[in-house]
Amino acid sequence: VTLMPKDVRDYLSQFLEFNNPETDQRFIERTKPERQKRVPEELYKDIFPVPNVVRFCPIRTGIILLEIDVDNKITIIDRNQNKIFSQNLSVWSHLPVIGLSSSCRLHATCSIPSFLNSLELRIQHIITKQYKDIQIFDFDDVQSIDFNAQDTHVMVRGTDHNKNKLERIIQIVSDQELLQKNKKTFDTFLAQKGICKKFSN
After folding, report:
1. If DSSP codes are grouped into helix, strand and coil, which group holds residue 176?
2. How far is CA 105 from the centre of its chain?
3. Rounded to whole angstroms, how far apart are CA atoms 27 and 23?
4. pLDDT per position as a tens digit, 123-181
5. For the chain, first and last CA: distance in Å?
6. pTM given for the model
């Protein structure tokens, strides 16, 4: 498939069934605290018995677990591809919240807010360890981070210093990447199915 010319791949995309993009409204509704699904213990207890945090990815084919201790370990279970990824963080200076992308390759954490009520949202790739930091303001505490189904935005929910509830949708890709992810091409179809990130032309 990787040797297939791009115009042939794009022609084939006309006959594929794509996932419908998740709208902002559906994203907001799905990630409300009262609608969060508990991850059954039997899905992870043999790998990671007592995590501090455990969450599903948006399409529930993956699970992320966080253990805050000496190793500060993040573990991702990709049930779709039957793979397990782990990452040890030398220093844990983040809030005990974590989010997992639909691709099961990106995770999101938040730093502890500074006295200016600003914090850094970190999006990191579990394999390459490449990351992107995004500064966000007004939050004094963060209770949850969720990716949308397309892995283009995250929802951050928390409170300000007066304990007022806050929720914010934050774009985590460039405008060009956003446009590309919304195109119905053979490459984006494979990415949606978790088969690959993107083929080169």
Report:
1. helix
2. 8
3. 6
4. 999 999 899 999 888 888 899 999 998 899 999 999 988 999 999 999 999 988 887 77
5. 12
6. 0.78
